[in-house]
Amino acid sequence: MNSGQLSKVTGVSQRMIRHYEAIGLMPPPNRRDNGYRDYSPRSVERLRFIANARDLGFSVNEIAALLGLWDDRERASGEVKAIALGHAEDLARKAEALEAMRLTLLELAEGCNGDSRPDCPILAGLAETRQRPARELTRARHKPKEIL
Predict the structure, then answer these.
(1) Each residue of 91-121: pLDDT tens digit?
(2) Cα→Cα distances 41→9, 10, 46, 52, 137, Å
(3) DSSP strand E in 7-142: where?
(4) Each residue of 46-76: pLDDT tens digit?
(5) Which of 19, 32, 114, 129 has the least C-beta neighbours within 10 A?
(6) Rounded Cα distance, 79 and 74, in Å
(7) Over the stretch 80-99, which tens digit does the pLDDT of each residue have?
(8) Residues 6+ apart with CB under 8 A from 111
(9) Which CATH architecture has domain 3-71?
(10) 101 sits in which H/E element
(11) Whole-prediction pTM value?
């Protein structure tokens, strides 16, 4: 199957397929005599795996680790579960930070009349010094994970 067909059956753009090959998530495909890429059924499975993992928000490094475990039939499922639970905790921290940002925006909008006057409490609030939810999100993103 060529890259256009692979893209069609997986929903992953040809550009992203080439990107996944370039960063090593997808192995380089065989080439036909005409130079076109030739993907195997296993490539379809692997690309679907990558796309599903990306949809769940896993990072490229996490996907690489998961692919390594997927390829290793001797692996313990506990390793996979630890990665999944660690990622779920990261998502919970990010969700909390996003909710804090949403509430801050609603609070700023609450103080705004939304009329034709030029004074704007939202802009004034954005100019204030305050602890911002975005900082919490950044901290959550870089916080070391505990292995369960």
Answers:
(1) 999 999 999 999 999 999 998 888 888 888 8
(2) 11, 11, 9, 17, 39
(3) 30-31, 37-38
(4) 999 999 999 999 999 999 999 999 999 999 9
(5) 129
(6) 11
(7) 999 999 999 999 999 999 99
(8) 121, 122, 125
(9) Orthogonal Bundle (1.10)
(10) helix 77-110
(11) 0.74
Q: What count of residues does the chain have?
A: 148
Cβ neighbours of residue 118 closer than 8 Å, sequence gap 6 or more: none
Decide: 53 and 63 in contact? Cβ < 8 Å. yes
Structure token pair of residue 16:
């992203």
Q: Which amino acid is at 105?
A: L
Beta-carbon contacts of residue 120 (< 8 Å; ≥ 6 apart): 112
Which residue in this structure is represented by tokens 């509430």?
Answer: 103
Structure tokens at 120: 């704007």
Whole-number Å distance between alpha carbons of 119 and 48: 51
